[in-house]
Amino acid sequence: MRLSETERAVGILKERRDAIAGRVTNLYFDAHPQLEDAWKEGRQKCTEDTRQHLDHLCEALLLGQPVLFVEYAAWVAGLLEGLRIPGEALVSNLALLRDVVCSQLEDASGNLATQYLEAAIARIESDSCEPPPFIEGTGELDALAREYLAALLRGARQSASKLILDAVERGVAVKDIYLHVFQRTQYEIGRLWQASEINVAKEHYCSAATQLIMSQLYPYIFAGEKHRGVFVGACVAGGLHEIGGRMIADFFEMDGWNSFYLGANTPTDSVIQTVIERQAAVLGISATTTRDVAEVRELIKRVRAESACAGVKILVGGRPFNIAPDLWRTVHADGSAPDAESATALALRLTDQRAGSGVPPER
């Protein structure tokens, strides 16, 4: 199979990854000699960061989605703002990366990579990249989300659990708890970590506590009649963030599906085996970062190649697919949805079911 110009260019960049990162680091420290003494292990950290930038650039190029690299760079800029590192530092690094990459790629692909990098630089220079708070408003669910978050941040897991269980007893729908409390709280926890307001340990604690509290709602989630068919959900091999995928699976369960959630870092063979054994009507695949997308595409390719999986509808979701709404077409999925509620509605359309129908899809 002949490689495209972009594929050949990405192959060159990956092959020369370490050399490119080292060259960018040397140029950066030549331009900022004061960092040699002020920043211990600075060269090593700068080289590691540049490798990360280059990896994300390569994936965005392969996918033909400059927005993925632009938003990655904005995320990094927001992270650096939280560390009180000005955006100019990242702009300088990306400008050097642009020049070195361009020197390695002398054809049109070099111009394309330059466009991606310059778009990222423009995004960082245009405005603050620090995301706004995710929990605002004065409604009942807004207040509950703030109380719940405060309980988690002070390590009061039992108090957080009581807030949720009491709300459900008052008649608050579990779906609303998922969408307006759990989801927004997780986004806000990610923002607080990015802004260096909490550390990794606290971020992990909050996520683990939310998963435990979600499990306490399972008597409500699994109590309904199952008449939709089977949904299998998974995070791709290498993917370590599973809470979003778990929320999707629970939503399917609440909507009348038999759901089988396989969790984080699921091997491809295991996903396919489960789809076949359970005769799944829908497979949901979650991706957290741009670098997960290649694994998503490979998994879908493998599923499509299995005759026993013929007819299964494949949905994809997660941050990369929210950033680039048409990315699902590139990986040959059947669709994508920005949240759990939209995902279940899309699944009904793809399997020719109505919202009130009790007829499962034929396989």
Describe the structure.
The chain has 363 residues and is α/β, with parallel strands linked by helices. The protein folds into 3 domains: 5-126, Phycocyanins (Globin-like), CATH 1.10.490; 140-219, Methyltransferase, Methionine Synthase (B12-binding Domains), Chain A, domain 1; 226-350, Rossmann fold, CATH 3.40.50. The protein has 18 helices and 5 strands. A 5-stranded parallel β-sheet has the order 2-1-3-4-5, sandwiched between helices. Helix 6 packs antiparallel against helix 7 (108-126) and helix 13 (243-254) crosses helix 18. It is globular, with a radius of gyration of 22 Å.
In short:
The chain has helices at residues 5-15, 17-31, 35-38, 42-63, 66-82, 87-104, 108-126, 140-153, 157-169, 174-194, 200-216, 218-221, 243-254, 268-277, 293-305, 319-323, 327-330, 340-350; strands at 230-235, 258-261, 282-286, 313-317, 335-336. It is of the alpha/beta class.
Features:
5-stranded parallel sheet, Methyltransferase, Methionine Synthase (B12-binding Domains), Chain A, domain 1, Globin-like, alpha/beta, 363 residues, Rossmann fold, 5 strands
